Amino acid sequence: MSSERSESLGWPGILRLGLVQTAIGAVVVLSTTTLNRVMIVEMALPAMLPGALVGSHYVIQLLRPRLGYGSDIGGRRTPWIVGGMAVLAIGGVIAALATAWMATNTAAGVALAVVGFLLIGAGVSAAGTALLTLLATRVAPDRRGPAAMIVWVMMIAGFAVTAGTAGNFLDPFSVERLVKVTSTVCAIAFALALVGVFRIEGRQGAQQSAADPNTPTTSFFRALGEIWQEPKARRFTVFVFFSMLAYNAQDLIVEPFAGVVFGYTPGQSTQLGGFQNGGVLTGMLLTALAGSRLARGRLGTLRTWTIGGCIASALALAALVVGATMSDVWPLRPSVFTLGMANGAFAVAAIGSMMRLASGEGQERREGVRVGLWGAAQAIAFGSGAFLGTVGVDAMRYLAGDEAAGYSLVFSVAAITFLISAWLAARVERPSEAMLDHPYTTTTTTAQSSLP
């Protein structure tokens, strides 16, 4: 048995891996938001252009299962994280150069931007899949909920710190300054990732992995097909798709909804986004504490928190639908905070469940393929949710001439999808099997045997 599968990460190791997630978030936030705004506002280009570029970075993430298979074959995740971060950083710089080039040669700039965003998607796929797989194989059962919360919060921290700091250095704006700032952020992010993974797998990992009899020997497509035949893996994949579809469909339209229906100014709607993110962090923290040693099994399992988070998200969205009909008296901020808290609870619980389910049911080690499959399902859902959510609002505005009805329609569909997700989460495995996700519901031996 390899050290990867026998030694659990302590809190310092989990925090260091969280730095990788911070680095990924730092590069992605500049690529998908700052460059987006520059193309639309400063370059006066059609909004569909950055939309298509961001969509391409989701499409390329269909490679996640194959990249995860590659890390399974090698047995080590660190090279894939480092290589993925290098590709991500290079893609971020190319995307910035392409955006600057659009100012003088639009066609050439767009062509180069396609290359940059595809590299961004490939880098996120390689580094992100290997990172989550490493967490899944090296985090003890009682730490999976808190570990999921830590890496997610550190990703959000990467978003926030980069957006605030880089924003200050971008003024006064010029395309040259855009390239310099983006290149600096990408270089710092890559260095941060190197710190995060330095000797995280140990010096003997390569030799032990090579001798591991569980190293995959079948082809990728056969391995993927066999994993799809595993009931738990297949059901969890479907759950991930539906839950993330619901999450992203509503996430992108909450602030516009506040402006159109409740008359919020841009500043007020931005503050509302802060309330929602505060709710997300609160939900994550509560779920992480519920899965920690402090709870000792009294606050439920990851399975119950996943189901409960989906149901609570549906109820919170239903409250927004009701609020749209009485905008003059409805408490929007508490409603959005509650929605964020429900979203955060289900997200962290789902990631914790993913870490446990990654070990699967087969004899060969295929954690990377499983995590990659679920990552691909999430990427498809994110891209589809963002597109369908905005299309739903536009369609109702065009057909009925009522923007509020469009937002209510999208919130209603997202609520129904969350309820479907709760049903799917309940069917991933039997309650008796799901009890294994908490070490205090069984013996220490049984809990350790569930480790990958």
Describe this structure in words.
The chain has 452 residues and is mainly α. It folds into 2 domains: 1-198, Growth Hormone, Chain: A, CATH 1.20.1250; 219-437, MFS general substrate transporter like domains (Growth Hormone, Chain: A, Up-down Bundle), CATH 1.20.1250. Helix content is 78%, strand content 0%. The chain has 19 helices and no strands. The longest helix is centred in the last third of the chain and has 34 residues, at 367-400. The relative contact order is 0.14.
Q: Main beta sheet: strand number and arrangement?
A: none
CATH class of the largest domain: Mainly Alpha
Distance between the termini: 10 Å
Structural class: mainly alpha
What's the gyration radius in Å? 22 Å
> If classified by CATH, what would the architecture of the largest domain be?
Up-down Bundle
CA-based shape: globular
Ranges with pLDDT <50 over ≥5 residues?
1-6, 204-211, 436-452
The helical percent reads over 70%
Question: How many DSSP helices?
Answer: 19
Kindly estimate the percentage of residues that lie in beta strands according to DSSP: under 5%
